[in-house]
Amino acid sequence: MRVEKFCCNRLLTTLLFSIGLAASPGIVTAKLYKWVDSDGNVQYSDKVPADESGKEHSVLDKSGVTVDRVGAQKTKEELLEAERTKKVAEDLATKKKVQQQADQILLDTFTSEDDIAMTRDGKIQAVQSIIDLTKDSVQDSRANLSELQGQAANNEKLGLRNRLP
């Protein structure tokens, strides 16, 4: 019974409101706003009260049809999260652009994937050659050191003073 009364009252209110809109030419040209107040009641007016302006509301045309929805103001946390999300998106876009530039350089430099592989293999061989030469040099230095240490030991046994060559 109470639900039926509420529905009838709401229907009657909406009907009277619509008739009032159609009958009053001054309101027809003005903007009309619709919002839900803090008590949960739907409100209509030609301006949104200051204490409700930060909340979600709708803009209605002269027929009472919603033509725009204005979202609620964001909290500080929501604004910070939006800023963080924007920064992450910008960083990703920057990284993607840098990667695309690097890819374009590869495409401009090499004619095929095989060219890239051959260049890579050539550089690996060059580095390996340097490693091998360095190992040989270290081995020669160790042999030379061992020989010099042997000579120094012999000189010490003979009582001779060691001189550097």
Descriptive notes:
The chain is α+β, with helices and mostly antiparallel strands. The protein is built from 4 helices and 4 strands, in the order ααββββαα. Strand 1 and strand 2 form a beta hairpin.
Q: Note the total helix count.
A: 4
Number of domains: 2
What is the H-and-E element order? HHEEEEHH
Shape: elongated
User: What Rg is obtained from the alpha carbons, in whole angstroms?
Assistant: 43 Å
Characteristic terms for this protein:
4 strands, 2 domains, alpha+beta, 4-stranded antiparallel sheet, 165 residues
Concise summary:
The protein has 4 helices and 4 strands; from the N terminus they run H-H-E-E-E-E-H-H. It is of the alpha+beta class. A 4-stranded antiparallel β-sheet has the order 2-1-3-4, with no helix packed on it.
Write the layout of secondary structure elements.
Blueprint: H1 2-23, H2 25-29, E1 32-36, E2 42-45, E3 57-60, E4 66-70, H3 76-109, H4 113-158
Antiparallel strand pairs: 1-2, 1-3, 3-4
